User: Which sequence fits this backbone?
């Protein structure tokens, strides 16, 4: 069974279907082991949600994939190229193809929002002239739902939600194939969070993105994730759609999805489905 | 997939058509946007039927060229059509950076801002000094609130860890003063006066002044950066909500540590500088250490020591308050922490030198010269 699964994944790699491939990852800080023998595949064109309790190493996993954290052991491949031990100025061809949204937005505080969006373009594509660069920054910012006035503002003048959108605009600046989002909806009000989810989904469909999404937000998981990976016991214990995960008999997964919040999110999805279902002409169901 | 984007102009049905081909993604655009800009109308249509792949930046390029040339977009496949419509819907000018003022208005504005800032800082520092006096009075009335551990910890950071660098600096300064002084005094055949020079100068002025500059650079800047970062991470707000006064918990231990350490460090610095001077006298001027010390006792009045020791705690208050005050003023972002740290050191050193001048006049007036 396991061998069959492995062979299937091998084939998938050959067909270039896997965007990120993590094998046998081990990360530790001093005596504390965060990951041990962690395996994960992210398929091209999917939104993969990554969940796990606090301190299970979700952000560390993301940092290992994008090369900010050198793992003790293991292999990380992005678009078929190994990212382990690469210096900041290596593997540029891969770096151009991803965008990262950090938890706090991580905007450069001395630049305006629009200048922040221009940084990756200026850095990687000096052939793009200043006027075109300004235009690109303008439509990217608008694409993430920010108003026109936000462009010339400095990050310190923005609210937390606007900063996240600006961070997303910068992550999208180069039209990446792969987008990393670290808790994009944390700290947003429910309306803002729903709008952000909606925006992410729309962008993913328009641009054909692969999204690696770390989240605690059950509504986000239900509404936009194609698959969900669960981090626990130092590894990915399960990957699949929410229905598949619910069928598993793991105490943390059951508690997570069947806790009061999980049930509320499920109920919301059910309501949405019923609303969308065609009603008979006489109005009765 | 990675075929570079190409542009060809052709005549078709009596009009000009621009045909784009290859990969219209950002990595393959190269000089295509510039060449599209170079095309002068009239153009009837832009033909995308030969385009393999397109991203939003390619779509934007096509959209803006079509808009400028008033041309139709033809032959776009579904993806391209969708992207061009998507970015076209977002077409609206946006300012990139805040509006710039004219140079004259900017200079006048900057001067005005600097004047306002300087007076605000002075008033703010005075207010902060007052607040620290209030906090001191509070601590005197409720000695149980005094944080002994915090103060002792600061003693170590401000005082003990500074011994090495201050000692080295003072030793070298002692040597330099003695060496430079002896060169001048030799012209009058009065090399023995080098001892007067070293002894009086280090005790009265240089020992304490150099220590103050070093402490401002080491500890004043650290205070500003620490408190500034705590302000950014809302630690100070959290303290207030728990009912802990940051003035008592953060500012008082630091101020007290510097005030107590400054006279000790200043005295230590003077002694090491004298040793440096004595070392040079022994090596270069053939004045044996015994003679040096005897002569020192004859020419340096004890009031010189008092002068240094009285000034030291005052300098300490200035350094600590400037550092803490600037740290507490941090509001917006990490960059401000850097600016405030710089301001703390500059203000501390400037004020120390100003106050030192007042002291010089004062001590002459009371006859300690």
Assistant:
């Amino acid at each position: 069974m396991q061998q069959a699964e492995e062979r299937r994944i091998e084939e998938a790699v050959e067909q270039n279907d896997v965007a990120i491939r993590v094998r046998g990852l081990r990360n530790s800080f001093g005596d504390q082991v965060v990951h041990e023998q962690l395996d994960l595949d992210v398929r091209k064109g999917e939104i993969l949600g990554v969940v796990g309790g606090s301190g299970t190493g979700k952000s560390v996993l993301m940092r290992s994939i994008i090369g900010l954290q050198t793992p003790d052991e293991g292999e990380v491949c992005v678009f078929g190229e190994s990212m382990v031990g690469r210096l900041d100025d290596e593997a540029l061809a891969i770096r151009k193809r991803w965008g990262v949204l950090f938890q706090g937005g991580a905007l450069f505080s001395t630049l305006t929002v629009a200048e922040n969006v221009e940084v990756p373009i200026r850095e990687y594509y000096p052939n793009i002239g200043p006027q075109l660069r300004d235009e690109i920054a303008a439509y990217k910012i608008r694409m993430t739902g920010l108003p026109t006035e936000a462009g010339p503002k400095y990050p310190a003048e923005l609210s937390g939600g606007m900063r996240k959108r600006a961070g997303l605009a910068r992550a999208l600046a180069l039209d990446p194939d792969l987008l990393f989002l670290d808790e994009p909806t944390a700290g947003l009000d429910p309306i803002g969070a729903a709008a952000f989810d909606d925006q992410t989904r729309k962008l993913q469909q328009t641009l054909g993105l692969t999204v690696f999404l770390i989240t605690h937000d059950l509504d986000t998981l239900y509404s936009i994730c194609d698959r969900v990976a669960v981090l626990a016991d130092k590894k990915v214990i399960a990957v699949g759609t929410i229905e598949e995960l619910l069928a598993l008999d793991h105490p943390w997964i059951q508690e997570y999805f069947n806790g009061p919040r999980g049930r509320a999110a499920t109920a919301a999805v059910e309501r949405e489905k019923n609303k969308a279902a065609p009603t008979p002409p006489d109005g009765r169901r | 997939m990675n075929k570079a984007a190409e542009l060809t102009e052709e005549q078709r049905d009596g009009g000009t058509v621009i045909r784009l081909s290859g990969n219209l993604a950002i990595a393959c655009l190269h000089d295509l946007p510039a060449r599209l800009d170079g095309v002068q109308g009239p153009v009837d249509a832009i033909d995308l039927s030969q385009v393999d792949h397109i991203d939003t930046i390619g779509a934007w390029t096509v959209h803006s060229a079509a808009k400028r040339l008033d041309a139709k977009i033809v032959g776009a496949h579904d993806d391209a059509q969708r992207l061009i419509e998507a970015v076209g819907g977002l077409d609206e000018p946006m300012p990139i950076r805040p509006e710039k003022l004219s140079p004259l208005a900017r200079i006048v504005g900057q001067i005005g801002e600097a004047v306002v800032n300087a007076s605000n800082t002075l008033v703010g520092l005075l207010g902060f000094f007052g607040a620290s006096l209030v906090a001191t009075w509070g601590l005197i009335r409720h000695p149980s609130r005094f944080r002994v551990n915090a103060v002792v910890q600061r003693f170590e950071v401000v005082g003990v860890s500074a011994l090495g660098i201050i000692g080295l600096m003072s030793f070298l300064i002692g040597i330099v003063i003695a060496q430079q002084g002896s060169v001048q005094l030799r012209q009058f055949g009065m090399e023995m006066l080098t001892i007067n020079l070293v002894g009086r100068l280090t005790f009265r002025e240089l020992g304490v002044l150099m220590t103050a500059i070093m402490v401002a650079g080491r500890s004043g800047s650290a205070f500003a950066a620490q408190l500034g970062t705590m302000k950014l991470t809302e630690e100070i707000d959290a303290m207030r909500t728990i009912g802990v006064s940051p003035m008592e918990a953060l500012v008082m231990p630091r101020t007290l540590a510097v005030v107590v350490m400054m006279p000790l460090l200043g005295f230590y610095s003077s002694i090491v500088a004298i040793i440096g001077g004595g070392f040079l006298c022994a090596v270069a001027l053939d004045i044996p250490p015994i003679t040096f010390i005897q002569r020192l006792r004859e020419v340096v009045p004890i009031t010189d020591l008092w002068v240094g020791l009285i000034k030291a705690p005052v300098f300490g208050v200035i350094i600590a308050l400037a550092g803490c005050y600037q740290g507490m003023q941090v509001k917006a972002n990490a960059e401000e922490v850097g600016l405030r740290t710089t301001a703390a050191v500059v203000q501390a050193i400037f004020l120390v030198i100003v106050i030192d001048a007042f002291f010089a006049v004062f001590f002459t007036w009371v006859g300690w010269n």
Q: What stands out?
A: Residues 193-232 of chain B form the longest helix (40 residues).
